[in-house]
C-alpha cells in the first residue's frame, strides 16, 4: 500500500510540474533593453478567470520567441502565429492597460524559470 501511495503522489507531482511551464498572463511592463517583462498571472477558467494583483518579473532567454497567438478553428486550440518583428518593442506592447499573452518558461537547465516563448493576443479594432 505504501508503494502505491508513493507512486500516486509522484505521478501527481510530475504532472503538476510538467503543466506549470505554460500559463496565461497579462503583461504590464516590458523592458527591451534589459530583456525582461513584468506580468500578472491569470488564474481560474471560464467565468472565474482573475488577474493576480501582484506582478512578477520574468527574464527572457536569448532565443525567446515572441509571436502572435492564433486560434486553430479545426483543433479548437491556441497555436503559434507569425513572429513579432520588433520583439518587445512592437506596438502590441504599448497598451497602457496591459497585453494578454500566454507565457512559456523553461523547466530545466541553465535557463530554468526564464521565459522561452510569449504568444501575444492582438485584438484588431472593428471599423
Task: Tell me the fraction of residues in β-strands, as a range.
Answer: 35-45%
Q: How far apart, in Å, are the first and last alpha carbons?
A: 64 Å
Radius of gyration: 17 Å
Q: Please estimate the helix content.
A: 10-25%
Spans where pLDDT lies below 50 across 5 or more residues:
15-20
Largest sheet: 5 strands, mixed, barrel
Number of separate structural domains = 1
* Total DSSP E strands: 7
Q: Give the oligomeric state.
A: single chain
Instruction: Please state how the strands of the largest beta sheet are arranged side by side.
Output: 1-2-4-7-6
Based on secondary structure, the structural category is: mainly beta
What is the H-and-E element order? Answer: HEEEEEEE
Shape, principal axes of CA atoms: globular
The averaged pLDDT comes out at 82
The number of helices is 1
Secondary structure elements and pairings:
Layout: H1 2-19, E1 22-31, E2 36-43, E3 50-51, E4 56-72, E5 77-83, E6 99-105, E7 115-120
Parallel strand pairs: 4-7
Antiparallel strand pairs: 1-2, 1-6, 2-3, 2-4, 4-5, 6-7
Would you write up a description of this structure?
By secondary structure, the protein is mostly beta strands. It has one domain. It contains one helix and seven strands. It has one helix at residues 2-19, and strands at 22-31, 36-43, 50-51, 56-72, 77-83, 99-105, 115-120. The longest helix has 18 residues, at 2-19. The protein is globular and about 55 Å long.
Amino acid at each position: 500500500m505504501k508503494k502505491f501511495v508513493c507512486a500516486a503522489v509522484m505521478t501527481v507531482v510530475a504532472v503538476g510540474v510538467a503543466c506549470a511551464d505554460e500559463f496565461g498572463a497579462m503583461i504590464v511592463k516590458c523592458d527591451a533593453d534589459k530583456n525582461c517583462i513584468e506580468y500578472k498571472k491569470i488564474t481560474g477558467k471560464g467565468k472565474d478567470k482573475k488577474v493576480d494583483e501582484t506582478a512578477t518579473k520574468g527574464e527572457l532567454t536569448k532565443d525567446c520567441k515572441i509571436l502572435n497567438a492564433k486560434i486553430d478553428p479545426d483543433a479548437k486550440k491556441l497555436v503559434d502565429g507569425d513572429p513579432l518583428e520588433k520583439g518587445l518593442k512592437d506596438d502590441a506592447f504599448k497598451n497602457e492597460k496591459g497585453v494578454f499573452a500566454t507565457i512559456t518558461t523553461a523547466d530545466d537547465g541553465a535557463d530554468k524559470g526564464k521565459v522561452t516563448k510569449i504568444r501575444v493576443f492582438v485584438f484588431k479594432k472593428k471599423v
